[in-house]
């Protein structure tokens, strides 16, 4: 019998049941559903809405169901419509009449809203921990590579010399912002919808604040219609997950480029690479490519839920059931990507010599050569043109700026002296950039200390 079957005279068509049911995917909410039910019954007993004895019997029955599900002794069966009806039917079967009082003062509408909030809250904690693990690994790599010189890019063209620590620090900033978004979302969703009923509350003397405290919410929601129809927190979470995925995808794209024969900036660990079925020489960056590809799935979940919600009138509509599968998939996808990417980063070998050589070949010190002339009284616009001539000469000869002779420098401008080689060395170009956020060692050590403090105090 369905929870709602009293006014119906026909059995539900099997195709309708299959189309309507959600147990096949919302079964993963059983921990949250049972936890919410225990809190609800505890409140009902406190308020005298059910007897203390019935409350004890119901709670013991719910704990037994939870233990059996955890142990694999109880299996989900197809005749039940959703996780709520599954739990309630099993409870009644186990404890009898008392189990029929479980649903007093609540609706599946506020029940599922609660389950999803509890689930998202739990998952936010796990995702945050995974992002923090990635940040720890980034910081570890930054500390190792504070003097690993490499080209910085704009338009995918070599621009100015930086260090690998500085480059990785940009991703540290991105993923730190991701954690901030997760924390903000958790704070905003932390209001308890249980007790809102189907949409208009209930006539039972519920203590919603007490229920909220049992479930570690900051308090009850304040509008029952919004409580059962709000999916903003899920949309926010999917947006945050999409941003995390985007950051992982950008990082993966760089690993893919760095892994090419043309760059050889990185050597991926065998455990995070695959080969070719036909080309024995291949070592493919499949993990990075899959992370990049799976980002589209996460984007799709966000767009799907926005589309589901865009035209829904108040209050609850069955369309909202579509929030679960796509949210579960997005959460699982991002968690998997974070774990694998962190492992890939931790086991990657960075080719310091190749990075430094690439920075030299890319004329990343050209701006510093122009600045050298400016420091000797040459107007910047003139200096820019003079160094451009030197770069053209280097390209024609297949050499870098520091391989030109002093005579060749002076043919362009007599302002060049022998100290130009020191001025345009990669070490000088990087180390003299000491402003906050710059790649010089002094600046980087300050930033690394700040990052370390951030991670240690949380």
Based on the model shown, name its key terms:
458 residues; two-stranded antiparallel ribbon; two-stranded antiparallel sheet; 19 helices; 4 strands
Structure description:
The chain is mostly helical. Helix content is 62%, strand content 4%. β1 and β2 form a beta hairpin. α3 packs across α6 (108-144) and α4 crosses α5 (83-95). It is elongated, with a radius of gyration of 30 Å. It starts with 13 loop residues before the first helix and ends with a helix. The mean pLDDT is 94.
Q: Could you give the order of the helices and strands?
A: HHHHHHEEHHHHEHHEHHHHHHH
Biggest β-sheet, characterized? 2 strands, antiparallel
* Content of β-strand: under 5%
Please tally the helical runs, counting DSSP H or I stretches of 4 or more residues. Answer: 19
Element layout with pairings:
Blueprint: H1 14-20, H2 23-26, H3 30-46, H4 52-71, H5 83-95, H6 108-144, E1 149-154, E2 157-163, H7 164-189, H8 208-214, H9 224-229, H10 232-258, E3 266-267, H11 286-309, H12 323-347, E4 349-350, H13 352-361, H14 366-374, H15 380-397, H16 406-412, H17 420-423, H18 426-431, H19 441-457
Antiparallel strand pairs: 1-2, 3-4
């Amino acid at each position: 019998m369905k929870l709602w079957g009293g006014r119906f005279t026909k059995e539900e068509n099997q195709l309708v049941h299959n189309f309507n049911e959600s147990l096949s995917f919302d079964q993963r909410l059983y921990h949250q559903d049972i936890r919410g039910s225990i809190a609800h019954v505890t409140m009902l007993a406190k308020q005298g809405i059910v007897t203390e004895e019935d409350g004890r019997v119901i709670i013991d029955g719910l704990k037994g169901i939870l233990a059996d599900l955890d142990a694999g002794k109880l299996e989900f069966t197809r005749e039940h419509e959703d996780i709520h009806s599954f739990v309630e039917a099993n409870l009644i079967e186990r404890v009898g009449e008392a189990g029929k009082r479980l649903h007093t003062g609540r609706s599946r509408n506020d029940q599922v809203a609660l389950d999803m909030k509890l689930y998202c809250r739990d998952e936010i904690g796990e995702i945050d921990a995974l992002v923090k693990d990635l940040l720890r690994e980034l910081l570890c790599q930054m500390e190792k590579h504070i003097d690993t010189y490499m080209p910085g890019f704009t338009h995918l063209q070599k621009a100015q010399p930086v260090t690998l620590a500085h480059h990785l620090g940009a991703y540290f900033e991105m993923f730190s912002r991701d954690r901030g978004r997760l924390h903000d979302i958790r704070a905003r969703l932390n209001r308890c919808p249980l007790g809102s009923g189907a949409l208009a509350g209930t006539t039972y003397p519920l203590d919603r604040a007490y229920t909220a405290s049992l479930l570690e919410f900051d308090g009850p929601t304040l509008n029952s219609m919004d409580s059962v129809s709000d999916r903003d927190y899920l949309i926010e979470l999917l947006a945050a997950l999409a941003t995390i995925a985007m950051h992982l995808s950008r990082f993966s794209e760089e690993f893919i480029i760095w892994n090419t024969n043309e760059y050889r900036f990185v050597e991926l660990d065998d455990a995070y690479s695959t080969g070719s079925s036909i080309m024995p020489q291949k070592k493919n960056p499949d993990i990075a490519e899959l992370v990049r590809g799976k980002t589209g799935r996460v984007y799709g979940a966000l767009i799907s839920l926005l589309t589901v919600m865009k035209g829904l009138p108040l209050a609850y509509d069955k369309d909202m059931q579509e929030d679960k599968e796509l949210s579960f998939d997005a959460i699982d996808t991002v968690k998997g990507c974070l774990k694998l990417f962190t492992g890939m980063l931790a086991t990657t070998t960075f080719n310091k010599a190749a990075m430094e050589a690439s920075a030299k070949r890319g004329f990343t010190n050209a701006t510093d050569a122009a600045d050298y002339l400016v420091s000797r009284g040459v107007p910047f616009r003139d200096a820019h043109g003079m160094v451009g001539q030197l770069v053209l000469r280097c390209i024609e000869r297949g050499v870098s700026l520091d391989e030109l002779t002093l005579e060749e420098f002076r043919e362009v401008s007599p302002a060049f002296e022998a100290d130009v080689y020191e001025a345009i060395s990669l070490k000088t170009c990087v180390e003299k950039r000491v402003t906050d956020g710059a790649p010089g060692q002094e600046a980087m050590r300050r930033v690394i200390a700040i990052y370390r403090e951030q991670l240690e105090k949380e």
